[in-house]
Amino acid sequence: MSRVVCLGEALIDFVSDVSGVDLMDAPGFRKAPGGAPANVAVGVAKLGTSAAFLGKVGDDPFGRFLARSFGEAGVDTSHMLFDTKARTGLAFVSLAPDGERDFCFFRNPSADMLLTPEELPVDLLRGCKVFHYGSITLIQDPSRAATLRAIEVAKEAGAIISYDPNLRLPLWPSADAAREGMLSGLPYADFVKVSEEELEFLFGSDDVPDGIGKLHDMGIALIAVTAGANGCTLSDGERQVSHTGFRVNAKDTTGAGDGFVAAVLRHLVEADRGTPLKALPKDEIEALARYANAVGAITTTQKGAIPALPTAEAVQDFLNTH
Q1: 259 and 43 Cβ atoms separated by less than 8 Å
Q2: Which of 22, 20, 76 is nearest to 53 (CA)?
Q3: Which of 13, 190, 252, 258 is catalytic?
Q4: DSSP structure string for 280-302
Q5: Closest Cα to residue 248, out of 174, 178, 310, 163?
Q6: How many beta carbons lie within 10 A of that of residue 118, not counting itself?
Q7: What is the DSSP-derived secondary structure letter of residue 109?
Q8: Which residue ranges make up each domain of the chain?
Q9: Handedness of CA 272, 273, 275, 278 (dihedral sign)
Q10: Can you tell me whether residue 193 is helix, strand or coil?
Q11: Within 10 A of 122 (CB to CB), how many other CB atoms are there?
Q12: Which of 47, 185, 259, 318 could crosslink 266 through cysteines, CB 3.0-4.6 Å?
């Protein structure tokens, strides 16, 4: 039984061959497996903890490519579904000189949007230690209903619930709908990873400690606020620990946040943290911030998320030299 189960979208990222151009001027694209929850599952597996991915893709070459890619990375894909009526989602991505991204999505609808509660593998959800989900499957039913049902099943079985309120405005009807939908996923979670940009979007302020306080007021035990190359802040409600991050030659930031999440989830499982998720010792939260930042930093040094997500050995080698 997989110790971490991730539910959500899996899609193909077509990444521009050339950095520093917009999508209109990109001369060509490279195919890469993607989707934030799928990236987290791969990240967990590559770090040495068993992980499964739950989601629906099209019964098409792209969907089969995704299943093969995740499986080759060590993820349990036996519960992935292949829809014969909807295609696998596509995203075209351009890269700025600093590795930041611009997206154009093709979903009308894509198969990941059509996952239903009845299609969930209940036994898998009841047996996991950590259940992770994102905000994209909360955009509309039936995937929203499926996500909420999965949370309910895993939570009732005592799993740690992890949430990434991933901001992808082009996928929502409006900014207000995005804010409402992303906020709706927060009260169920024990752990939340949110970027500074997402925190400001959710609460209308760039005051990070205030935003962290609001998240804790919702009952969230462990919060990570990421700041890209500037590191992160981890808060367990009793203390806030900041780590300045690592300076690397960033080529593509795709998957860096997902790698960060994977590092945290792997730690919560291996440290045998159960629910309710309690405050972590100071040295443990400091070490976790450093480790998760290292995973995120390493992930930016190659193009594409899955090829760049590191093994535990690679992370240790990195930390030994930084």
Answers
A1: yes
A2: 76
A3: 258
A4: PPHHHHHHHHHHHHHHHHHHTTS
A5: 310
A6: 9
A7: S
A8: 4-9+35-80+109-321
A9: positive
A10: strand
A11: 13
A12: 47
How far apart CA 27 and CA 36 sit, in angstroms, is 26
Mean pLDDT of the chain, nearest integer = 94
Q: How confident is the model at residue 194 (pLDDT cuts 50, 70, 90)?
A: very high
**What pLDDT is stored for residue 253 in this prediction?**
82
The Cβ of residue 302 has, within 10 Å, a number of other Cβ atoms equal to 17
CATH number for the domain running over 4-9+35-80+109-321: 3.40.1190.20
Q: What is the pLDDT of residue 97?
A: 67
**Gap between the Cα atoms of 315 and 248, Å rounded:** 14
Determine the Cα–Cα distance for residues 194 and 132; give it in Å rounded to an integer: 14
Residue with tokens 């780590």: 243
- Is residue 260 within 8 Å of residue 292, measured between CB atoms? yes
According to the model, what pLDDT value does residue 99 have?
Answer: 59
CA 154 to CA 127: how far, in whole Å? 8
Is the distance from CB of 312 to CB of 49 less than 8 angstroms?
A: no
Residue type, 153: V
To which residue do tokens 């409006």 refer?
A: 174
pLDDT digits (tens, 9 = 90+) for 241-259: 999 999 898 887 889 999 9
Rounded CA separation 239/192 (Å): 16
Helix, strand, or coil (residue 200) = helix
Reading the block at residue 64, the tokens are 């089969």
Min mean pLDDT across 60-64, 99-103, 217-221 is at 99-103
Q: Using CA atoms, how far apart are residues 125 and 52, in angstroms rounded to an integer?
A: 10
CB contact at 8 A, 55 and 9: yes
Residue 201 — φ and ψ, nearest 5°? -65, -40
- 192 contact partners, CB below 8 Å, separation of at least 6: 162, 163, 164, 165, 186, 215, 220, 222, 223, 224
Whether 258 sits among the annotated catalytic residues: the reply is yes
β-strand partners of 12: 33, 90
Chain position carrying tokens 């979208």: 9
